[in-house]
Amino acid sequence: MAKKHLSHDQKRKAKLAKRAGKAPPAISLAYKGNKFKTDELVPVFLNTETAIYEVFVMTERKLTDADVQAGLEELVVQLRKGPLPPLEEEGNLQYSEGNEKDLIVRNVRRHWIEMHFAGVEVGREQLAGVVRSILGSVELWRSPTSQSRGYLHYLEGFLKKAGVSVQMVSADSGPVPEPEEEQLVTIGRPWAETGDPEAAERFRSLADRMIRAGEGEKVVEACQRLIGETAQGPAFAELSAYSLMAQQSLKRLKN
Q1: Tens digits of per-residue pLDDT, 22-40?
Q2: Is residue 136 packed enough to be buried (19+ CB in 10 Å), middle (13-18) or exposed (0-12)?
Q3: pLDDT at residue 47 tops 60
Q4: Which residues fall within 8 angstroms of residue 247, CB to CB, at 6 or more apart?
Q5: Which of 39-53, 67-81, 90-104, 105-119 shows the lowest mean pLDDT across its residues?
Q6: Quick one: which of 186, 242, 251, 201 has its CA closest to 219?
Q7: Within 10 A of 146 (CB to CB), how many other CB atoms are there?
Q8: Domain parsing of the chain, residue ranges
Q9: What string of DSSP letters covers 10-43?
Q10: pLDDT tens per residue, range 189-239
């Protein structure tokens, strides 16, 4: 019988699979219940998620869901250790590639300090609960790729609906134009908001083409953005289905 030879790529995948099988499963810090979704904690959720969105804008939308997860997990670890150390923060936040996790931690804590001075008093257990609940949202809305921004695009739509607007400014304090909106979002918005059948057909046609062309990530991001903007709107079920379909296409490409 002829001996079977594996390609270099097949050997690499087999080695990674073997290592993954030996490694203990990571313990998720995410919480997916409703214990912390109370009226009292609404300002904490809003301030924390606004801080995350500000970093997304600050990084010119290069921030990924994985960066958000890393920053929030660091916050949970710090909160569980005891009172948070003083925040060494002077002036404006500065972004440089590689400091995304630190930016998340620092900007969230800045918002918490401002919230405290505004009279919103919450304990460490509640803060950790809110952060863990947001981690649950990250797990829910992210795609299966390392560059996923599905949660961040959902958050952008959700905060837009809540009336939150964040804009970059240049060195001379002038406004920086926002990036051009993805065509799929523009096409799909009338469908998501009002159920417009013509917009629905145009969205389906373009989304199908993009998935076939290997652009599933952009389809996921567009779907999550529109769901965030319209919540349980008339297109919610089908947008969710398209997001899942696009994610399945990404998994096939990954394998």
Answers
A1: 545 568 899 999 999 999 9
A2: middle
A3: yes
A4: 143, 144, 216, 220
A5: 90-104
A6: 242
A7: 9
A8: 39-161, 183-254
A9: HHHHHHHHHHHHHSPPPPP----SSTT-SGGGHH
A10: 999 999 999 999 999 999 999 999 999 999 999 999 999 999 999 999 999
User: What is the token pair recorded at 243?
Assistant: 């997001």
The widest CA-to-CA distance across the chain, in whole angstroms, is 77
Report pLDDT digits (tens) over 125-183. 999 999 999 999 999 999 999 999 999 999 999 999 999 988 777 666 667 777 889 99
CA atoms within 13 A on the CB side of 52: 29
**CA pair distance 44, 9, nearest whole angstrom:** 46
Mapping DSSP to helix (H, G, I), strand (E, B) and coil, where does residue 175 land?
A: strand
Pick the closest to residue 226 from 166, 183, 179, 164 (CA basis): 183
pTM, 2 dp: 0.86
The encoded tokens of residue 212 equal 């076939």
